[in-house]
């Protein structure tokens, strides 16, 4: 491989093909040739993960495949992320992110967190099966701009609305922008519970977050 695009395409392919043992070497070659680390993350690793997610949506990949793809992505990320320079002036905003109480599916949440971090947001990861008050406490404690909630289960969707109601009850609703996402979530549901933003994927989430904090120019 010689061109940057060849390396980006290879990284994406290796994520899709779950090649977690060899991807770090390719990423190191990419860096050694002087190519941009952030572009490698977005246009290589994350692009591959998005392709894998599409295969999952089309039922060609199963959850075990997606986990192996994410292993490959993180193996590459370990190499590239060390070469992404960011100082306090580059931080676009602060967000707390987690999977709502009752749900332990966190692949989508992890991808959104990764893309938002790479784009310049400081993300506080609360993990999965997060108690509702913890979203609010973490947002206050970290002086966050965004509360980002995810779920893949219809049975836990209503917990997102409960967090918004709790924010209102505690006089904090106007202090934070609330973003939601996940498989069963829709714009209609977001409108119903009063969320500030709903996005279908990690790319849209980054753009929406920038708009919510006024950094979309």
What does this structure look like?
Keywords: Cobalt, Metal-binding. InterPro entries: Cbl-bd_cap, Cobalamin-bd, Cobalamin-bd_sf, Met_Synthase/Corrinoid, Meth_synthase_dom. This is Corrinoid protein. Residues 92-217 form the B12-binding domain. This protein is of the alpha/beta class and 217 residues long. The chain contains nine helices and five strands. Helix 7 (158-169) links the parallel strand 3 (146-150) and strand 4. Helix 1 packs antiparallel against helix 4, helix 3 runs antiparallel to helix 4 and helix 6 crosses helix 7. The two termini are 35 Å apart.
List keywords for this structure.
5 strands; about 220 residues; globular; alpha/beta
Brief write-up:
This protein has nine helices and five strands; from the N terminus they run H-H-H-H-E-H-E-H-E-H-E-H-E-H. It is α/β, with parallel strands linked by helices and 217 residues long. Strand 3, helix 7 (158-169) and strand 4 form a beta-alpha-beta unit.
């Amino acid at each position: 491989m010689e061109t940057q695009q060849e390396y980006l395409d290879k990284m994406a392919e290796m994520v899709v093909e779950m090649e977690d043992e060899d991807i770090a070497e390719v990423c190191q070659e990419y860096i050694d040739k002087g190519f941009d680390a952030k572009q490698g993350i977005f246009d290589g690793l994350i692009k591959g993960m998005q392709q894998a997610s599409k295969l999952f949506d089309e039922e060609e990949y199963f959850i075990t495949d997606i986990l192996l793809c994410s292993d490959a992505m993180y193996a590459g990320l370990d190499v590239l992320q060390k070469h992404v320079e960011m100082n306090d002036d580059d931080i676009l905003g602060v967000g707390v992110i987690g999977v709502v109480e009752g749900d332990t599916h966190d692949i989508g949440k992890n991808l959104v967190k990764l893309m938002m971090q790479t784009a310049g947001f400081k993300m506080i990861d609360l993990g999965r099966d997060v108690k509702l008050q913890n979203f609010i406490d973490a947002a206050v404690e970290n002086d966050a701009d965004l509360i980002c909630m995810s779920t893949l289960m219809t049975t836990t969707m209503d917990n997102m609305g409960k967090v918004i109601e709790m924010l209102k009850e505690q006089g904090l609703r106007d202090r934070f922008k609330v973003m939601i996402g996940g498989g069963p979530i829709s714009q209609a549901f977001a409108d119903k519970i009063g969320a500030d933003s709903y996005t279908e994927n990690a790319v849209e989430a980054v753009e929406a977050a920038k708009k919510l904090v006024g950094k979309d120019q």
